[in-house]
Design brief:
- The protein has helices at about 1-5, 15-25, 25-40, 45-55.
- The chain is mostly helical and about 70 residues long.
- It has one domain (about 1-55).
- α2 packs across α3.
- The chain starts with a helix and ends in a 12-residue tail after the last helix.
Length: about 70
């Protein structure tokens, strides 16, 4: 699951398209799955979902980040 998490970022169509290409999915599938995850987390935006994940102790510092 680490790969889809790293593929995230950006909150616009270009970000969704990049995620889709990296994971060999359609942009529509990515939009649907992100929407499903946000709904389950009761988050409005990806950034809010990331903050919830960090608060829960999931993940770690990304590439190039101290931590």
């Amino acid at each position: 699951m680490a790969e889809p998490q790293r593929a995230g970022g950006g909150g616009h169509r270009a970000g969704r398209d990049a995620i889709a290409r990296r994971l060999f999915l359609s942009p529509t599938t990515v939009r649907k799955r992100v929407s499903d995850v946000l709904g389950k987390l009761q988050a409005r935006r990806r950034a809010e979902a990331v903050a919830l994940a960090r608060d829960a102790g999931l993940g770690g510092p990304g590439p190039g980040r101290a931590g």
